Amino acid sequence: MMRSSAYHAGFAALRRRAEEKLQSSQQKLPEYSASQVEIHRIIHELDVRQIELELQQDELLKCREDLEKGIQRYSGHYDFSPHSYLSLSPNGTVVDVNLTAAKLLGRDRKMLKGDRFERFLSERDVPVFKELVDQVFTHEGRHFCDVMLLSDEPSQTSTPFSEGGIFYRNVHIDAVLSSNGEECLVFVTERKMKQNETRVVDDFSHLLIDKVIHSRIRFAALSYLYVVNQAFFVEIRNCIKATDGNLSIHMRMLESAQYISCDKEFQLRKPQTIYRITPQGRDAFIRYSKIVSALIAEHQPDE
User: Fold this and answer.
1) Do residues 224 and 118 both lie within one domain?
2) Which residues contact 193 (CB under 8 A, 6 or more apart)?
3) What is the CATH number of the domain that holds 92?
4) Which of 173, 203, 233 is the last residue of a domain?
5) Per-residue pLDDT tens for 208-236?
6) E strand intervals along the chain
7) For 8-113, where are the E strands, in sequence order?
8) Could you give phi then psi for residue 276, rounded to 5 degrees?
9) CA 1 to CA 10: how far, in whole Å?
10) S-S: 84 plus which of 11, 188, 261, 266, CB 3.0-4.6 Å?
């Protein structure tokens, strides 16, 4: 209402200025008497101009109606699509979400906007998701990851966690950069388990394996830090035979999960990056080792 009042007030002020300018310009015009032919010509030109403006207005109204129909049609396809779509900001905040995604997350659509998407992921998958978003905004192309999504109730793909009976949905996330480069467009699909896969998942649950550690470079780096407790970046790189770029990315993921800490120190008057394994990282590595060892030991084939 305030915006409408301000609009009308501005329009009235603009009209007053136009009338004042018209009066001032008319005062400067010399008096003359127009012939009847000239008067009819001017009236005809004004009538034609009025009709032209009316036709343009009709065209603009028709274009507006077509645009509104297109927006409604797009909104219908977006909202009622069987697939889950979200738009995220660079820090992972939900900008827009369709009804299917809101249902998957178990929250009201209006409440989801402005919330952080990582809140709905298992704690161990948060660093993986953050790395995905960073990759979308720094590298072109399609990026994807598999994560566990919190669920209020079990479903065909939900598996109960041992801590507090929490349920998760195993989902696959595809992400690309929007055309304006300001948002991360996310497409979430729930991974369906086939009937003959149920026993395998029950016996060899991949949900127990820490995804942050379960990578060749991250596992090798954390294993080395578990033994030596702390090491410089160059030392870790040379030990596990990784490149600077790859190691930097994986060390950031371990740091995001608070499995390691990163500090800058001087060695021979040169700044060096030193990493230390945290108590949380040590516990996670022990838990990971026990789970993998148990899976191997419990299911050894009979000789």
Assistant:
1) no
2) 156, 157, 170, 201
3) 3.30.450.20
4) 203
5) 678 888 889 999 999 999 999 999 999 99
6) 84-88, 94-97, 143-151, 158-160, 167-177, 184-190, 230-232, 260-267, 270-277
7) 84-88, 94-97
8) -130, 140
9) 14
10) 188
